[in-house]
Write a structure and sequence with these properties.
- The complex is a heterotrimer.
- By secondary structure, chain A is an alpha/beta fold.
- Chain A has 14 helices and 8 strands.
- The two termini of chain A are about 30 Å apart.
- By secondary structure, chain B is α/β, with parallel strands linked by helices.
- Chain B has a single domain, classed as NagB/RpiA/CoA transferase-like (Rossmann fold), CATH 3.40.50.
- Chain B contains 7 helices and 12 strands.
- In chain B, the strands form 3 sheets. Chain B has a 6-stranded parallel β-sheet with strand order 1-12-7-4-2-3, sandwiched between helices.
- Chain B starts with a helix and ends with a strand.
- Classes of the chains: A alpha/beta, B alpha/beta, C alpha/beta.
- At the B-C interface, helix 1, helix 2, helix 6, helix 7 and strand 9 of B face helix 2, helix 3, helix 4, helix 8 and helix 10 of C.
- Strand 9 of chain B pairs antiparallel with strand 9 of chain C.
């Protein structure tokens, strides 16, 4: 980690640099989960842009493409560890690991210690877990940044992904970030904290229930008359957008990082 | 081995593996209970006011009365409005005297009674052990309130309480029960909080499901 | 797939899209949420209260032998007959034995989920007794010959119109569909039964060790009457309902009321410690308490999930569970539904047969967040899944495990992942041709949802070009 005055601040437009005159330039190790990599690369690209604008160095360590959560959630902890072990290895020298999803963030920072408890990797898991942060939480709680000088003149509502909300206590950081986005009007939906019904393999194993849950979510979002639903979880947005599109409902979903990069 | 011993053996075996106490150890103290529950004012006035407010919210009637004659007048007024014909009560100084003053056919629970007769009574008049300000609750027992049925079978339950019986909160009420009965508990101790109710149909509140539809508390 | 799992899937598929059902439940739950949230504010420190409750239940459950022994000693001292039932059959036989002994004809019951658990009503009716449920909701579902829909609100799924029709058909007494009028119909019918009944059977919310009493929480007064009028009283209670001290009720009675119905206290919270005592005006001449194990000791032996025995059956986890709200109480097909039911049923009735309930969850955690005694509900569902994966399994699980085995090297090796990325682009295009049809490999998704395309350039591919 390089500690020096953020001189770069003086060469950037006043809108762009955020918080304090003296800031730590960090090396941010970005972990882009499998579905973000394949289907929502702009979420990752937005994150890279945001950290670079803040003057930090972004690296993408050669980690597995997946955090191992699907196997873990299905009860196959051996198979999950088969992915987790190389993940721990790849991240062992990272200073700060930023994860582009609330659910993967929870997997790595909350569940890795449980997954590896009683194994030779227990200490490594605890060490890596302590360095893992979900994207919005990292910005607000670690970097102390809430204003990225972004502009997004739309009426929006926010969906709290369950892992981020309940495993990571991540209710406020996304809202603090959105509060400083120019032109953005945030209207909370009644069912903001209600599960969208994705739940990983749950969405395919119990499609009728998953769909019903997603319908409830969509209905609540539509009531706000917002143009966009924002979340920190692309998987949730995939569920919500998928339902909305199939039913030809007029609502767009967008990841928080994409909004903040505008 | 008796079934009891078999079950205990299973319990002991199961408990031989220790569980982790995630939220700390040890039973909470009364201070800790009070620290999380709603606070109650220390003065009688505050507690009376709180009890009155709670009773009102619960749709119970609560009336302070100056003395015995005011109480008699109130009871007679109710008798006439509600057209009582039969009263149930128990052998306690206040309850029995005031029931007698109504001049109606009276069933005294302690004398033994036929359950069909009790069911026909329009009102059950009893004393109580305490009034709990925190929750608007009347505390009765099978020893102090004429048994079990008197306070729940007739459609109108009238409680004659005394100001000294007011306690602040639930911890105080339980402490009172232990102090009063610690050597030999009654077979029933009941915390009555408002008239009977149900929400079983569309979660809509209906009073008088099975227990009394009306609860009136007079406080001397 | 086990038979219960098959039934669950069928029922879920049928009920989840039923928007009429969804509307009824949403409305009922909405009302509950408003009062519950107001009541939580009545506490000075609701989260602190949850901690105290969790600590109390930890002590209760982890010293269960000591507290059960104390409870028994104290309640027996007042002339109560305590019986021990290792399983449902023993419990039924004990109770049938008492009924036969007393030459009973009419039995009146107040709410007891344990009696549902052991199928007591069926057994009593088979033996020729007339059994009447006195709780209004239970009375309604008894008339409909269906199980209770919810721990606290057995008839939550019915509208007033449906109840009116039911009363008209079964009782010939349904003046209108007004909830008050309907309640009065039940009141009239039940009053006759309280007077007729030879035996009253109750459940219990708590069993107090220190003073040897059981505690019953209710609003209607039906349990008060069940315990007051008949000459014989029986209480069926799970061994885990123990609380160490009388004063613990000062915390638990309000917490149960807040979470159960949004009240500060329910109308009647009553402690019973014996039959009619010397000098009392009335009360049952005989009092029996039947203590039920029925695999509670199995759950006790699982130290990881033992806290689930602290459940006070408030129903709060059911109320917040999006799965419960969408599939309804009957879909679970077992007496305890919702999150707590999904956690404990594998222990009570077998993991192989009942593991599917632990999978039918998105692990959202709303249950854990709400539980007044801080049971780690959604993590226990995960643990059940982990335990289930170690069972000898059938074909579907075998292939699933294999899939996860194959996925690891694909995820771990950049070259394989890169190849998979490219292949999946082609695969998705091909799949698009059969989108939503039976041969679509992701039909479970695409039947009701669109699928986004695989991006033309994945993040990793972009990073290779643009990264440092």
């Amino acid at each position: 980690m390089f500690i020096h005055a953020c001189l770069g601040e003086f060469f950037l437009s006043p809108n762009r640099c955020a918080f304090s005159k003296l800031s730590l330039v960090m090396t941010v190790s970005l972990f882009i989960p499998c579905f973000v990599d394949l289907m929502y690369p702009h979420v990752g690209i937005s994150m890279v842009r945001i950290f670079e604008r803040l003057g930090h160095k972004v690296v993408v360590p050669k980690t597995p493409a997946c955090c191992g959560q699907p196997a873990f959630n299905t009860g196959y902890w051996d198979e999950s560890r088969a992915i987790g072990v190389p993940m721990l290895e790849a991240l062992k020298d990272s200073d700060a690991v930023v994860i582009a999803s609330g659910s993967c963030g929870a997997m790595m920072s909350v569940f890795y210690p449980q997954l590896f408890a009683g194994t030779p990797h227990e200490a490594a898991a605890k060490s890596v877990a302590a360095k893992c942060h979900e994207f919005s939480s990292f910005l607000v709680n670690k970097l102390g940044v809430t204003d990225l000088g972004a502009k997004f003149p739309h009426k929006v509502t926010f969906h709290d992904g369950c892992h981020g909300l309940r495993e990571l206590n991540n209710k406020r950081p996304p809202r603090e970030l959105l509060a400083n986005v120019k032109g953005l009007e945030l209207v909370e939906m009644g069912a903001a904290e209600t599960c969208c019904g994705f739940g990983g393999t749950f969405s395919a194993k119990f499609p009728a229930i998953s769909t019903a849950m997603g319908d409830v979510k969509c209905a609540s979002a539509l009531e706000t008359k917002a143009d966009y639903i924002i979340s920190c979880d692309s998987s949730c947005l995939m569920q919500i957008q998928g339902l909305a599109d199939k039913q030809k409902k007029e609502i767009k979903t967008i990841h928080l990082a994409e909004v903040l990069a505008q | 081995m008796s079934e009891r011993e078999i079950i205990f053996a299973r319990i002991r075996e199961g408990l031989s593996i220790k569980a982790h106490a995630h939220y700390g150890d040890g039973l909470p103290t009364t201070e800790e209970h009070r620290g999380v529950m709603p606070p109650v004012g220390a003065s009688i006035e505050e507690q009376l006011a709180l009890f009155a407010k709670n009773a009102s919210d619960l749709k119970a009637t609560f009336k302070l009365v100056k003395d015995a004659s005011e109480l008699t007048a109130e009871l007679r007024a109710l008798r006439d409005t509600e057209k009582w014909q039969r009263v149930a009560t128990h052998k306690s100084p206040l309850a029995q005297t005031h029931s007698a003053a109504l001049g109606l056919a009276t069933l005294v629970a302690d004398d033994g009674y036929d359950k069909h007769d009790m069911e026909q009574c329009d009102v059950g008049i009893s004393e109580c052990d305490a009034l709990i300000a925190q929750t608007g609750t009347v505390l009765v027992t099978s020893r102090s309130a004429g048994g079990r049925a008197l306070s729940c079978l007739p459609p109108h339950h009238i409680v004659i309480a005394r100001r000294e019986q007011l306690v602040a909160d639930l911890p105080s009420a339980f402490a009172l029960v232990k102090r009063t009965y610690g050597v030999s508990y009654p077979s029933m101790i009941s915390f009555i909080t408002g008239p009977s109710r149900t929400g079983d149909i569309e979660r809509i509140l209906v009073l008088g499901a099975h227990g009394p539809k009306k609860l009136t508390i007079f406080c001397l | 797939m086990s038979a219960p799992a098959t039934h669950f899937n069928e029922d879920a598929r049928r009920v989840a899209p039923d928007t009429r059902h969804r509307g009824i439940i949403q409305t009922a739950m909405g009302k509950y949420e408003v009062v519950r949230d107001q009541r939580k504010l009545w506490f000075q420190d609701w989260q602190g209260a949850r901690n105290l409750a969790a600590r109390t239940k930890f002590e209760s459950v982890n010293h269960l032998d000591k507290h059960l022994a104390e409870f028994t000693r104290n309640i027996e001292a007042r002339g109560t007959k305590v019986h021990w039932a290792s399983n449902a059959e023993q419990a039924r036989n004990i109770i049938l034995g008492i009924l036969s002994d007393k030459q009973a004809k009419v039995i009146v019951k107040s709410k007891a989920m344990t009696s549902e658990e052991i199928h007591l009503n069926d057994a009593m009716e088979h033996a020729g007794y007339e059994v009447v449920e006195s709780d209004l909701g239970e009375y309604i579902v008894q008339l409909r010959k269906e199980p209770p829909y919810h721990l606290v609100f057995p008839a939550m799924h019915l509208t007033r119109g449906e109840i009116k029709d039911l009363f008209q058909e079964k009782l010939n007494d349904a003046p209108s569909d007004d909830p008050e009028a309907l309640t009065m119909v039940a009141r009239r019918a039940l009053r006759k039964k309280y007077l007729q009944a030879d035996v009253g059977i109750t459940g219990a919310n708590f069993a107090i060790a220190e003073t040897g009493m059981i505690s019953i929480t209710e609003n209607e007064g039906n349990a008060r009457l069940t315990a007051a009028v008949p000459k014989t009283m029986i209480t069926l209670v799970g061994i885990e309902k123990i609380l160490p001290r009388l004063e613990d009720l000062a915390l638990f009675l309000p917490m149960l009321a807040v979470m159960g119905t949004g009240q500060a206290l329910t109308c009647y919270n009553t402690m019973y410690g014996g039959p009619r005592q010397l000098g009392e005006a009335d009360g049952p001449e005989e009092y029996h308490v039947v203590l039920l194990d029925n695999h509670r000791t199995t759950l006790l032996a699982d130290a990881e999930q033992r806290d689930a025995l602290g459940c006070i059956r408030c129903g709060a986890c059911l109320n917040v569970c999006p799965i419960f709200r969408n599939v309804g109480g009957h879909t679970y097909g077992t007496v305890y539904g919702g999150p707590i039911g999904s956690v404990i049923t594998p222990h009570l009735r077998g993991l192989q047969q009942w593991k599917h309930l632990s999978y039918a969850s998105s692990l959202c955690g709303a249950c854990t967040e709400t539980c007044p005694v801080k049971i780690d509900l959604h993590h226990h569902l995960l643990q059940n899944r982990r335990n289930a994966s170690a069972l000898p399994t059938g074909k579907p699980s075998f292939f699933q495990k294999l899939a996860f085995k194959f996925f690891a090297p694909i995820a771990n090796k950049p070259a394989l992942w890169s190849l998979t990325t490219k292949l999946s682009r082609i695969g998705m295009k091909l799949r698009g041709l059969v989108n939503g049809s039976v041969v679509d490999p992701v039909q479970a998704w695409t039947k009701t949802r669109d699928l986004p395309p695989i991006a033309k350039q994945s993040f990793r591919e972009w990073w290779k070009e643009h990264g440092k």
